[in-house]
Amino acid sequence: MDTAGNTANDHKVIVITGAGAGIGRVTARRLLGDGHSVVLAGRRRESLAETADGSPGATVAEADVTSAESVRALFGLVRERFGRVDVLFNNAGVFGPAASVDEIGDEDWREVLDTNVTGSLNCAREAARMMKEQEPRGGRIINNGSVSAHAPRPSSVAYTVSKHAVSGLTASMNLDLRGYGIACTQIDVGNAATAMTAGFGANARQADGSVRPEPTIDAVHVADTIAHIVSLPTDVNVPTVTVMAREMPFAGRG
């Protein structure tokens, strides 16, 4: 999976949302190490600068994916600086509070859906527009799904619904964009060790109502998988891929 030693033709312009922490940060640093130009997008410039860590290939761009105007400005910057975009990693997302359907609040519901679904749509829309127009035409869009797109955790209604929606978004994109040289992937991650999953190693709520620890994996393995997909020519598609801790109780929940 190592794509180090890129030639000029292998060099790509990559946009990563939610690049200030977690999977976004680890993936950005992996792709920067592979010699790509990586636009680090997120709401907090300080966190993005920490991800960049002085890399000459990094461009820090404050952006709020829930705002269509902010996303248009982000891709306007990409167009002005690079003239094209080869890869979008639609990574920005939030988990939201633990709540079932009768417990979720209005604002909490909106925040999760606005970030995970509308945010992904906003970014994919602008990336696809650029990829259709640029020469050579085409590119790759990778949406960060979740194993929750297949089976929920208890009391995760907003997050689970949002990730099922991401599956629909990815499927629609693959159908609508394949004729334009655009390949679309959904990567479903289970228990990568990030701030979002920090509690799982000690007290993850199970489908039977119990609370017990779950295994986690280093997020670098997710980044390695994304780097491999990025290295593929766009006539090769990986519609879905799951990267998860082997012993996490995924199949038996829901």
TrEMBL record:
PANTHER family: 5-KETO-D-GLUCONATE 5-REDUCTASE, BLR5618 PROTEIN. SUPFAM superfamilies: NAD(P)-binding Rossmann-fold domains. SMART domains: PKS_KR (SM00822). It comes from the Bacteria. Belongs to the short-chain dehydrogenases/reductases (SDR) family. Residues 12-190 form the Ketoreductase domain. Keywords: Oxidoreductase. This is NADP-dependent 3-hydroxy acid dehydrogenase YdfG. It comes from Nocardiopsis terrae.
